[in-house]
Amino acid sequence: MISKNISRLRRAQATRRRIARLRVVRLSVHRTNQHIYANIISAEGDRVLASASTVEAEVRRQLSGHGGNLAAAVVVGARIAEKAKAVGIDTVAFDRSGFRFHGRVKALAEAAREAGLKF
Fold first, then answer.
1. Higher-confidence residue: 45 or 79?
2. Under 8 Å between Cβ of 77 and 39
3. What angle do CA 33, 89, 116 make, to 5 degrees?
4. Which pLDDT band, with edges at 50, 70 and 90, does 31 fall under?
5. 62: burial class by Cβ within 10 Å (0-12, 13-18, 19+)?
6. Domain for residue 119, yes or no?
7. Are 119 and 51 in contact, with CB atoms under 8 Å apart?
8. What is the reported pTM?
């Protein structure tokens, strides 16, 4: 029997292969029950150019509850977009890491788009 996590990672592989073939910078999202993380990864896939998450002290100050809700995802989405702009990145490929595009993942993506990141 295949676990939920292995199924999710298997789904993520196809997306990551496609993005690797395109040789573009990617915005990778990971979520847990308590937190949400976003990384901008180089086209070669060898280094993280920018990151934002609900674990950061500045983000935690902006949140009223814990980091596992929609409001937290919106804050992280806006923050990753502004960090990407600071590094000089305005276009990325969205890597949802096998998670369904709804809820917190969708909220993060929409907040990043509104803050000026294109994907």
1. 79
2. no
3. 70
4. very high
5. middle
6. no
7. no
8. 0.93
